[in-house]
Amino acid sequence: MNKQPGRRGILACGLMLLLMTMHVPTKAATTPERNEIEERDKWDLSSMYDSAEAWDRHYREVESMVAALAARQGTLGEGADALRSALELRDAIGVQLEKLQAYAAMRHHEDMRLPGPQGTLQRAETLAVRYGEATAWFQPELLQIPEARLKEWLRAEGLRVYGHYFDDLLRSKAHILSSREEELLAMAGKTTETGDNAFSLLTNTELRRRTVKDPEGAEVEVTSPVFYQALYSKDRRYRRDAFEAYHQGYLDVKSTLAATLAGTMHRDWYYSKARHYGSSLERALDAENLPAGVYHNLIGTIGRHLPLLHRYAALKKRALGLDAVHFYDLYVNLADVPERQYTWAEARTLVLDGIKPFGSEYGAVMRQAFDSRWIDVYANRGKMTGAYNMGTYLSAPYVLLNYTGTFNDVSTVAHELGHAMQSYFAKENQPPVYAGYPMFTAEVASTAAEIVFKRSMLDRAADRKERAFLINQMLEDMRQTVFRQTQFAEFELAAHTLAEKGEPMTAEVFMRIGREIYERYYGPEFVIDPGLEVECLRIPHFYTNYYVHRYANSYCAAAAIARQIMAGNAGAQERWLQFLKTGNSRYALDMLKLAGVDMTTPQPIEEAMALFRQLLDELEPLLEAGGAGQ
Ligand SMILES: [Zn+2]
Predict the structure, then answer these.
(1) Is residue 72 pLDDT above 80, yes or no?
(2) 602 occurs within a structural domain
């Protein structure tokens, strides 16, 4: 629950960033300097600030606004007018600070070697921290206004718009403790983070990484990016060696990893109990006003469709001609096609054509993104890797890419522009307080755009090899986003339950749970290597209370919406625009209902499963009739 409007920051989509890091980094020698790239292929930030002096001037203005807000301490309860003007000032600071920060961050990301933009970004971040400190009293003071009085004030012109904001804020009241108790909880903060910190230090610095020979015979150190990249290699020896080398490092320290994970599960349960929640799950979902049923619905519905995943694993085994299928055989594409390259002009045409089912209003904004330089297209020396959308209230929703022309890159364009559309329509239609969007829905707009785009590519694919390649890509998206993240969601639930019941949490216990889930998910044809058992101890997301279910739920919601859009259902386009325009002026589940999906029911998840089955039905004959496979 984002109680600080305007402070949305970078819209990093975790899974996407992870996928992006899999690309082979462009060789430094062939990567151009930024000034060698044509202007039309770089984003145009000049409409935000036309000079360094303009940024500086704005910085000082925001600084004085922060001081003005700090001086309002103790006045919020004086009356409706005092409350309204304080809220408006806070919202204005929120969006202006966001603009200062976003601009500084984007300038920094253009070439991270330059000290100038780095210094500017640090200044913006320092101001944001000072703002946080100077206004830490704001929310507690709002909560002290007697509820009946507040509700009376909210009827006034100018305050009515804050109705949903206060509804959301007041929900948290039941979980706020006395000031002494709050102080004690805050004091415990540093110690309860030890598990998380130790995990991060161990896995990022001290863990022993091994080397293997790559397909060309060169020794490579198996770091995370190298490992995920190796999984897509057609050379099975390399995939297997990389898998084993990568996991051996984690097996070496499995007991330590179990201890850091156990510590984190205990941390989550401690705060949940302290704040009167029945479980860590309840606390995590309550942050977005989601009932725990949404979580169980996902796990239960996917659980009833696991034979589809067994079928997919068995197909991998047959198509690759293997005796047994292992984890390191799952990622490789079954179609034997040389990777196609798409120029930027082709990407533009393909994406704009592909998203036509969303209608002309949506299409016009996306065209503007391409033609008004909202996109920073190519890699240059020193540029940030990966891809993101930076949506702010006072600027265009800019998109950073490192476009190299692969199919994956073109899909990333559709994905990031999908985010940009939501940023755009939300800010155009909402006041600053609601210009963000709920975390639970954050990947829906991007994934729906990506699915509709990929389906259009499939429809235009002429030969069977290209079709097989694209279908395999879509199946892999779903395996990695829906099945794999639900699998993690199951593990998380089991691990939290151990903490809540006070049961032992050793490496053996965790690994047994991880193995049992793998057995159920992938079925009898799948071999579980010792390295795979330790996977559950190396997932960073488990250190953020119940995070991954959003990926799977978002994908299913997006698949259901995409189907309605592509089928041309009456009103589907209008519902979609309404969803994008809602910002966070409603709760996540209500927003999704606007778009025509009810995530408390199995239906959207069943629709995603129907899509998976349909793609499998199409792929099997393509591969087995011969010619398309390898
Ligand atoms: Zn994303």
Answers:
(1) yes
(2) yes
Taking the centre of ligand 1 as the mean of its atom positions, its distance from the CA of residue 12, in whole angstroms, is 7
In degrees and rounded to multiples of 5, residue 326 shows phi and psi of -115, 170
Report the percentage of the chain scoring pLDDT > 90. 86
Query: Cα(450) to centroid of ligand 1, in Å?
Result: 10
> Which two structure tokens, joined as six digits, stand for 420?
């940009």
Helix (H) or strand (E) holding 437: none
Per-residue pLDDT at 27 exceeds 80: no
> Do 393 and 480 belong together in one domain?
no
Catalytic residue among 416, 443, 490, 492: 416
**pLDDT tens-digit readout, 478-491:** 999 999 999 999 99
Ligand 1 center from residue 164 Cα (angstroms): 26
pLDDT tens-digit readout, 605-619? 999 999 999 999 999
Q: CB-based contacts of 364: which residues, under 8 Å, 6+ apart?
A: none
Report the domain count for the chain: 2
Q: Please give the distance, rounded to the nearest whole angstrom, from the Cα atom of residue 435 to the centre of ligand 1.
A: 17
Q: What is the reported pLDDT for 628?
A: 54
Question: Distance between CA 352 and CA 345 in Å, rounded?
Answer: 11
Query: Are the C-beta atoms of 444 and 557 separated by less than 8 Å?
Result: yes
State what percent of residues in the chain have pLDDT above 70: 94
**Contact between residue 64 and residue 131 where contact means Cβ atoms under 8 Å apart:** no
CATH of the domain at 628: 1.10.1370.20
Predicted pLDDT at 324: 94
Residues 169 and 119 placed together within one structural domain of the fold: yes
Considering the domain architecture, whether residues 74 and 145 belong to the same structural domain is answered as: yes
49 and 73 housed in the same domain: yes
416 is annotated as an active-site residue: yes
